[in-house]
Amino acid sequence: MKDCVGYLKADLAADMVNWVTNTDWCVYAEVAEILGGYEGADTLGCLLEITVYSEVEPTPTPIPGASVVSPAAEPSPASESEPRIAGLSTKPSRSIDTGKLTVTPDGAWILNPNCGFRLTIETGKDVAVQVKALLDSRLRENLYDGEERLAPIIARSNLRCREIEEYVCIWRPRYLKRIEELKAASEEWATAGEMDRDDLLAQFKGQALAAIDVRPRCDLDVLLDSEPVNATIDDALVDRYGFDAVDTYLQHIGKPAKVHRLAPTHPQRQRYESLLTKGLARRGSDIPVAAILADFKLKEMAQLAPPGLGPFGRKAAAIQALTNVPDIRERLGKVVAFRELFQLLPLPEEFAGIDLGAVGTSWAYTRTVTNLFVGTYMKAAWELRSFAFYDENPDLVRGWEVRPGSKACPYCVSKVGRVPSSTPRPRVPFHIGCYCDVVPV
Ligand SMILES: [Zn+2]
Ligand SMILES: [Zn+2]
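Above: the input record for the complex with zinc ion. Below: its predicted structure, written as tokens.
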């Protein structure tokens, strides 16, 4: 399901929102979260949470005592006491000026000095310029593949984002300490076998994550659990196979034997076709029957069995029995299209020395950091745009209301509510990966 994010293009998502709401006001929308769908058939339907950015002209509620000419109103003879407010009659520009790339005294780069939440990267100037251009072009052109294009840069340049590192510096020690406390407090842990310990550890990690007050919306366990390993390991793979292929390959390296079923229209289908031609995957009839059957339910396997075979009590027994049926491939061919089945292959001998587990972990970390980085940059930039009008017309605002983003963390929830306009406007995001909103009252 995770793979859906990024395949609904921003402008297409905006069209969809306009179509569903029967309006024409949304210019940019992106998939923020996959909330659900049909497991195993994710192209049939997904429940998506969409972040929407509107181009609508601000139509503030008239404030008693203030004179406002609504842009929607018919032109009427405006008296001297009802001046037309600059900015209301023209459509706001779509351009967002996040500010010029600015070097800090210690040689880091601030990417968005005009924003309320600034992002600072430690890297060479060339990379900083490249990253800034990419992020701003994503803002201007609704590029949806910002993350796709940025991930290889982050992975290969060892770029560090200070705000993300600061977050990790504060919260990782607390997270790890909490896990150790939970282990020490658990009677089961001391005597548990290896498998049970894995199970318990997953439970402890969940509890330790839940105890964190400031939670960016991302794969937080990946961010706090792992650290990037030597990025040069990835380089050899990327040089040989290209970024997309390595990305797809490493996403599934945790379960290399899994058979992936991808209909021709599946967004990932092209990527798997490419793995096939690069020798990193095999397809359909080349995949062992047992691996294909591993994803079948017992009931489905019973339907494949010839008369007299079965019923099956356990999956392993069913797979073994069916594998020995002489015409099992023909039987399977009636219920699945072999062309839609793909399975990863091991890397060739020359990469035998690579610890794929470690590379996969490092890659997942880079992915998480990239998504967090891009998401935070976009949120801070759009905040700038949303308030350009109100910042120029403070008289129209009586106060601000902080609204929590979905899955807002305890820290953000504590900020929810109204604040009077006499206090400075709360600036979002409140932290990296925060998707809360502030709206004028
Ligand atoms: Zn938060
Ligand atoms: Zn928040």
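Notes for the reader.
The mean pLDDT is 79.
Residues 405, 408, 412, 430, 434, 436 surround zinc ion (ligand 2) (CB under 6 Å).
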